[in-house]
Amino acid sequence: MALRLNLHNPILIVEDQKENRELIARLAKGFGVDADIAPDGKIGCEMAEKKEYSLYLVDLEMPVMNGFDFINAIKEKKPDSLFIVISGNDVPEIIIKVMKLGIFDYLIKPIDRERLYQVLERISEFIRLKESERILVQENEERLKAQLNWILYKQSWLTDLEKNIDLSKSTLNNLKHSFFSGGGFGAIVSLVEMLQANAKKEETTYSFSSDIIELLFENSFYVKKGLNSLEKSLTILNKDFQNSFQKTNNIEIHNLLEKSRLRLENSNGRYCKKKKIQIPQIALPANEYNIQVDQDSLSRIFNELLINSLKYSPSNSTIYIYTSISGGYLNINVKNEFDPNSIPGIPKNKELLVKQPFYRLAGFVDENLEGEEYFTGLGLTIVDFVIKKHSGIFSIHNVIDHSIGEKPVEVVLATVCLPIND
Question: Given CB 3.0 to 4.6 Å as the disulfide criterion, which of 60, 80, 175, 422 pairs with 67?
């Protein structure tokens, strides 16, 4: 029986019965896993001080220091540690109490070889995925730092944010004026010209082709929708952010993100089912933090990132959302696969361009998703604008992901970094 494990460090077996701990150690070593042993929790803690362990297998009832106290002591110093409890106690209340400590699994004595094998295999896969995620986050942070340094270096022309936004406001106002003044979308003009060419006048009335009229009505709906999104785009560009920031904690941010995810999933449920796209629940962060944000704007731009990923995700894929904390920043990550036959993701030479107003990376895609708020071609521009107003960083680019399947996959990773208050 061979295991393909990711356990870079040995495991520690904390068990007061000699025959049990030696049996588990022999089984583990038979699976290719190095194992140390300790007769009680106190000695186990001393060993953990001197050495790093991938996993702790812990008995509950032990002299000197029992399993509960050992788990709490290790978690206090090493909160990310993994635990498997081994116990002869099968009382449901005790098992529930132990599981609330955040352990990986609970094994009933006597230890079954096959059961131990399965648990170690799951542990191995879990560690592999966590390591892949850590590498992904680290690579992303390095890219963000490099990008920030480049922005500072090019400060004279790239970070003149207000000037760029004033230009964008002027452009949008010109577009808006053009639409309302009758310049409109080309389709409307073409349809009206067709009506003029085919209209038949009968005394005081005209008769038109019903097909053309129906097309005109349909295009009128999309023009109105475009104008509404244009209004929303102008509203957020003109917003007074400094007077709208509120102190927000980690629970509030999590709830805000989770509501956006559910809203997108519910409003586009038919679309998600059709393409078989999943958006798993967002995990609650373990760290405590506070940030100053405009909650309404943050919710809107997070919604924009989710819709963007939903548009370009291929069938039978998953959109992952997770948060992390590093270097004094809260990082909100949205990760999705893409179909390279229709869109190249966000190549390195396009990372800055996709945030520019009205830049299009790909041809037409389905843009009639529920919840879209911003004018076509301005979504990522507004995300970048809002995050900069929060003194944060927005980045979107391709990365190589090792956590999705057996082979590395190129995915798009969008990351919003917001500064945490001291």
Answer: 60
